[in-house]
Structure formats: C-alpha cells, structure tokens
Write a structure and sequence with these properties.
The protein is α+β, with helices and mostly antiparallel strands and about 110 residues long. Helices cover about 20% and strands about 45% of the residues. The protein has a five-stranded mixed beta barrel with strand order 1-2-3-5-4. The protein starts with a helix and ends with a strand.
Amino acid sequence: MKKHIFVFASVFVLLVGTGLVMGAHHVKTITGEGTCAKCGLGETASCQNAIQVKKDGKTVTYYMVANDVAKKFHGNVCQGSTKVKAKGTVAKEGGKMMLTASSIKKAE
C-alpha cells in the first residue's frame, strides 16, 4: 500500500512540475507600449502596469501582476507611455491577459 502511494505521489509531482496538471504557463517576451492601466488607459481603479501589443490588427493588453519587478518599473510608465520589453509568464484570468514579469526594461 505504501508503495502505491509513493508511486502515485511521485507521478503527481512529476506532472505538476511539467505543468500537465495545473496548466502550463509559458515564459514569453512581450514588446509593446508600456503604460499605466489607471492613469494612461483609465481601465483600473489603482495604478497597474500594462503593455499594449498590436497583434493581427487588434490591440492586446497585458496587465502586469503586482510583484517587485513591476513595482520598481512603474515610475517609467505612470505619467506617460514608453516602448517596453518584458519577459515573464502569461495567463488568462477573468478574460484578461496577465503577465507576471521576471524582467522589464525600456525597449530600444
């Protein structure tokens, strides 16, 4: 019985680690116009970084999850927009594209 539990737990950990059970989040690099979702777009009640990307003739907005990377960079986009390049994981939550940034900088 203990052997079966160990095998099951091992397989579960392996599947979670590869993203098969929880849904894989892929690391992406996004380049677009960085702005504040509150001050620049008027879409949120509080300041939040957002990156707008033109894709297939449409504008896709990636809202950044508030983490240390996003908070440190926010001063660059709150009072005006700038071209940015961000790297992180993307997930769709509540119909919005959410980016958890691992790095963000002004694009060249």
